[in-house]
Amino acid sequence: MINILRYTEYLYILVAGFSIFRIFNDWNSDRSMAYLFIFFAVVSIGMFLFRRSYRKKFEQRKRDNNKE
User: Fold this and answer.
1) In the 8-state DSSP scheme, what is residue 28?
2) pTM for this predicted structure
3) Could you give the CA distance from residue 16 to residue 58 in angstroms, rounded to a whole number?
4) Gap between the Cα atoms of 23 and 41, Å rounded
5) Within a 10 A sphere around the Cβ of 49, how many other Cβ atoms?
6) Which of 12, 37, 40, 56 is in Cβ range 3.0-4.6 Å of 48 for a Cys bridge?
7) What is the C-alpha to C-alpha distance for residues 42 and 4, in angstroms, rounded to an integer?
8) What are phi and psi of 30, to 5 degrees?
9) Distance (Å, whole) CA 36 – CA 33
10) Alpha helices (H) in the chain, listed in sequence order
11) What is the pLDDT of residues 21-60, one digit of tens each?
12) Rg (CA), the chain
């Protein structure tokens, strides 16, 4: 279960990287699409940080339960 959570974190980073790439490519030609990909990049980075903190809390809870 934890391994799946770890992989999904990095999928969000890949989406953010792709979005940043599209921002640089579309900035001069299609500004409205660039703004859309800015939104995707920000949301993807936020989801990465949220999922990472959630996974770390889950791992800590699992370690605490194993100690008892």
Assistant:
1) T
2) 0.82
3) 24
4) 9
5) 12
6) 12
7) 22
8) -140, 90
9) 5
10) 2-26, 31-67
11) 999 999 999 999 999 999 999 999 999 999 999 888 988 9
12) 16
